[in-house]
Structures are given as structure tokens and as C-alpha cells.
Amino acid sequence: MKLVYFNGRGLAETSRLLLAVAEQEYEDFRYPLEVLDWSTHSFKREAFEQDKAAGKLAASLDKLPYLELDGGTVIPQSKAVERFLAGRFGMLGDSAAEAAQVDAICEFVRDFKQEYQAARKLAGPEREAAMNEWFEITLPARLALLEASGLVAGAAHAVGERTSLADVTLYAFITQFFDEFKRARAALASTPRLRGVVDGVAALAPVQAWLAARPDTLF
Q1: DSSP label at 161?
Q2: pTM, 2 dp
Q3: Mean pLDDT (whole number) for 143-170
């Protein structure tokens, strides 16, 4: 397998973590990416643009990340890649109902991310105030709602009795998504089951090995 993305965590890191948990060998292909201006999302990505112009990214509609399977089949879209990998490695629960619960937790995390990005796009004092509100009020409240929903059933695994896509998604959200990861971690203070899930993934030896070996990137 070949996972293709830019040289950053971004939209590919959850898939990389799934591959780490499953202890799978794969090609971690990374296009070089130089940040010119974070505020305008201006980047230099010459190799990507060259391959895009040459039609080499047509199967993914010129978007990253995508997963290329042995034999050439391309799976585009980060969430589709995550669900495919989770299904292949037995990380979607043990029943259709558990698979739906895993999916629901992942979709709630996607909602939380979108809410955060809306606040993050602000500028100046307005942005600082929005960030403080997000980490001190909004995120703890959203996590508390998720914990109270009953979807997160256990203190070791969100769904079922073994590591699932939901566990890895929650771990990646709290520890890999935010620049201010310490504030994100602090938001788990009143949600012991979610905290247990995140800590459980963090304690996995393959995850620790991946974090120690992966490239050091800006995002």
C-alpha cells in the first residue's frame, strides 16, 4: 500500500495511526510542502503541482490524501481511506450496530473540528477571544456531551472490547489536531471515559514507535 499526502500530519495522520496500530508496512509518500503564509494558506508545492498538471492525480480528483492499493486501485478522500483501513484491520466493531456507533463518534469529531476552524479563521483580539472560549468552554462542553451520550461505552475502548477507528480518531483529535495540544488535553478533565480512550491509544507500543520515528513537521 502507498499512502500519499503532503509532508505533514493534517488529513493523513489518522490513517497513519491506523496503519501503525495494525503494524502494517506501507509507503508513506509525502509531497514537499513549503509554507509561505499561514494566514492566507499560501504554500509552495512544486512536485504536487507538476504531477497534478501531468494528470497523475486524476484518480483522486487532484486531491490528497489518497491510498493506492497493491494492484493500483486508488481510494481518495481521507474519511474513505480511514474507514477502508479500519475495516481491513478489524477496527469497525464486531457488528453492524457497533460499526454505526464508531462512525457516529467519528462524525461528531468532524463536527467539532469544523466548529473549531470557524473560530480559528478569525484575526487579532477577536481570534484570541474565540480561541480562549473554544478551549475553556466549547471543547469541554462538546466532549462532555459526547461522554454523556452513551456512545462512548467504556473507559478503555469507545466501542466494543478492542481498539477501533473511534478510539484512534479521538486520540488523533486531542493529541494531533490542535496546535495548543495541552489545552486540548485539559479539556478532557471532566470526561474520564474519553480520557481513558485517548490514554489507551497513547499507551500502545506501535503508536509510541510511530510517534518516535515519524518526520518532524510543521503541521
Answers
A1: T
A2: 0.94
A3: 94
